[in-house]
User: Fold these one by one.
Assistant:
Number 1:
Amino acid sequence: MAHNDSNGATDRFESLLTSKARTLRRAFEGNGVVRCLGAHDGLSAKLAERAGADAIWASGLEVSTAHAVPDANILTMTDYLRSASFMNDAVDVPVVADCDTGYGNVNNVIHMVRRYEAAGIAAVCIEDKQFPKVNSFVPGRQELAAIGEFVGKIRAAKKAQRTQEFMLLARVEALIAGWGHDEARRRAHAYVEAGADGILIHSKQPNPDEIVRFIEEWDAPVPLVIVPTTYPQLSLSDIQALNKVRMVIYANHGLRSSIVAMSNTFKEILAEGTTATVEPKIAPLKEVFALQGMPELKDAEKQWGHTGKDPIRAIIPAAGQPQDAGLRNAVGGGSVAKLAINGKPLLQRQLELLNNTGIQDVRVVVDQDAGDFSVDGATMVKKDGAVGSHMVGSVLAGLQSASLQAGDRLLVLYADILFDRTIVERLSDCDGDVTLVVDRAFASRSASGKTVDLIEASLPRASDGRHLASEARNQLQNIGDSVTGDAATHEFIGMALFSVTGVQALTAVAASAPAGADLTWCLKQLLDGGTEIDVLEVERGWSEVHTLADRDRVAAQLAGAPYLVAS
Ligand code: SPV
Ligand code: MG
């Protein structure tokens, strides 16, 4: 009896357990042929599914080989089940598990059926050989079990299964053992009688004659399964035309192709003394991560990963072009986000810094015609002309796409700054509705003729000498053009954190922003409207990149050049 929790989780699990088996059972009732590809682990199963396999054959030969041991019951049921479970977890298509002889006698078969069924495996296949078996293609001993003994295993297996959908395939090895057609047919009929849901008839002949004869003579209403490893001349359309085979198993071709591919790659690396020549021929790491499910993992962290603090999403307004002609040239007319610093785009550097402080959801707002520049892990948002020009419009566009949830916080970060990670870490500890990061070491920079966003804070600026940050709350008193050089205490660095309430206030003032308004304008409006704005004081530890000289200085510092403190 299924108990349903508020998310329907139990029902989902129950149907997951049975739905693959049901899919397979339905396919057996139809007229088509289920194409199974052999696999041995999650990756090979996933590749088979990606190639279009209808089902996965959890091959004993493949799993044994992947462990570098003979296919002769050297591994235990637990080993095979573990491999089959990895395959099953990796794919949405049904898994048919090769369970050799059932790993012992009837009691082993009963245990096996319960364990495989509980693991969500759609079907198991047992063969009528003696335990321990050896692979059917190995010359020499291929000892068959007595018919009565195998019939007992089938009956026990059918009794042991708990769901209707789970299927048992009985595999006839009489042709493999050289006992001929009559024996094969006699056994197959006895197994159908005992309740088998399908008969796998195996042959190792180098042509299809033997198997075709068996199929043509087959007169029971139970589907056949074949494994055309040694008789590849028999194509899928030939099999379909025979109209009694409902499953074909291409049992080991992925394993064998990987042996060639891996061997060649390994040999080439050692022969060449470099991996450079193999690199273009092998899967890029991006594909490796996709196969692992890394994008899903990141999404889950974004959605549910909790650091104990309210999650922060970031918006980087990166529309427009740099004002400086040199920089404009360097980025080929696009956003400063593209600017390479020591070979890595500025945006990628920002993203890595944010990600490393636990901020995973980063939206970068670019112009509608910004082309396809993007950085892995960032969501690029194309700004619609309707959301207003300049930076405020970009922040609004980012907000529209971010759909903040209750409890989320928003970090707004200028596209043209780099910063020490500790600044973001300290900022994320702040709990005001609006907090600006401000630098007290601004005087020398404004004196050098740069335009800086000066602010006035409630606590006085430290004079010369050593300085201990105050524990008292420091609040914004003024920002924008009306801050005079004398009254200025700090410089706004272009990084601000908003609570949901802060975001609501920001959105309200941004809606009435004039063309060309920037974030500073909005902050001034908020302040004048009575919003309390905190400031987080830092001393250096960041840099804007407004000119090529800035870029070169930042590049040198990132590469380890001494940090030159201007006097
Ligand atoms: C397997 O893949 O392990 C099989 C099929 O049992 S065969 O190797 O052809 O016997
Ligand atoms: Mg096998």
Number 2:
Amino acid sequence: MEEIQRGTYKDIFEQLDTMALITNEHGNIITANTIYFTMSGFSREEVINKKIESFIIGNYHPEKSSQSEVFVKTKDKSEILQWLIVNPVYFNRNSDSLCIWLLTDFQVSGYDPLTKLPNRFLLHQELNKAILTARKNHSIFAVLFLDLDRFKFVNDTLGHSYGDILLQEAALRIKHAIGNHNMMARMGGDEFVCVLDDVEDEKGAEQYAKKIIAEFAKTFVLKETDIYITTSIGISMFPFDGDDVESLVTNADTAMYRAKKKGRNQYEKAKADISAGSFEKLLIENSLRKALEKDELLLYYQPQVNLKTNSVTSVEVLLRWEHPDLGMISPGEFIPIAEETGLILPIGEWVLRKACQTMNDWQKAGHPPVRVAINLSARQFLQHDLVDQIKMILSETSLEPNLLELEITENMVMHDVHKAIGVLHQLKDLGVTISIDDFGTGYSSLNYLKEFPIDTLKIDRSFIYDIDKNSNSVALTKAITTLAHDLNLNVVAEGVENYKQLSLVKQFSCDFVQGFYFSKPLSYDHITDFLLNQKNTIRKNA
Ligand code: C2E
Ligand code: MG
Ligand code: MG
């Protein structure tokens, strides 16, 4: 029995994937596996019964289980850097002990020998796990990227041994600040990364960054020398600043650089990059490119109520983006990026086609016709084949042209008035109607409006929202309505949210109302319900 077991153990020892040796209580090598002999180049005779110190160089403590970075000597007098795991084994209380020495490749070990922290390879794995978990739980977490300020100076002037102690000490302080339950890793050099999954928001991550910075306020005492050193920190948040390991770490790193530039000893958030534009834009741009293919875009519809008939004669189509990780993104966030990158062209075409199709289907299902109002972006309006595109979509979807309304803004037409008038006439010739959106926020030149073949003015929400408190808004809304009527234009009051606003715009003879008071933008199913039950809903509220 014992023989079999001994044979089995020997087998296991041989089949280990790493170099392995066994020493006796005197530190003499009693056996080693074939991998060791192959890699070191020594023969059995050259090794057996010799002191382990002659073959493995480094700081190790065979009297207890420990791990460290060592060099393994080879026959050709070179040295291989390896991660050592030593493990003493006791067979019974009185007997002498043996010690097992396992030597593995660095990256495989996953730990930094100096600080005993996970290294960048293990960090990568752990971050991947954190991402999967957060996706599943719809939770967030923070990544902090730290770099010690002026570490190189300490290292160069005081020497590496000081540098090493400083790194170990710094690691302890960071760990102390973030707590044992949060993970941290050494990236190499004087860089550390923390993964904080107990934060509820960015504020939580900032609290940790402040705590770390406070830990560095105390001087470090290295071999009786006082050293004052600080750290700069970059913060990125999953999923807002990146949804993979690469982008989370890179963005935290970039933010850290900004903290350095601002004078060190502080933190910066990757978020700031968003306003600076670079990263978030790229992220949105990249996923926006795929959003169309992946069917993540959808249309919502907001009714416009005709105040004379108390019925819905048209609905405005409002684009929505249901991002798999970020949730619902509002057009205010992604349309400007789509504009800038040109993605608005395929997206705009999709909106036009989809909306016309839907309205035609709605009619085919036996419902009374409603007009669809679609927003055009500046870039779409300048597109040379816009008129042809719309013509084609109308014929493909067989929607009656007078059921399509195009919303443009003043600024779009003021760019090149002459050209704009030409395009608008061509569109009118197709039979579609045209409205000016957000009126009052741009040029607001009623003089010019005379020249444009348009049908409707939509008074911007900013006039309506304080119409019950601000006499300027009252005067402007009144004036716009009167002048628009003189020009034979319909007037829509946008953003009517309460009864008071409704009664005022009614008093000024606005023709249509669009706003949360009657309805928020609705999904297809909900707008269908709304339209079918409108008699009750609208009459009750009007
Ligand atoms: P917009 O064309 O002026 O659309 C009206 C916006 O006001 C919508 O915001 C709507 O949800 C909001 N709104 C309506 N009633 C109220 C109200 O009573 N109170 C408040 N607070 N808000 C109200 P949304 O859907 O976020 O769209 C924002 C803008 O994005 C739109 O402004 C439009 O300029 C643009 N947009 C939306 N869909 C498209 C599209 O398909 N193509 C293009 N080019 N732009 C679009
Ligand atoms: Mg609009
Ligand atoms: Mg508007």
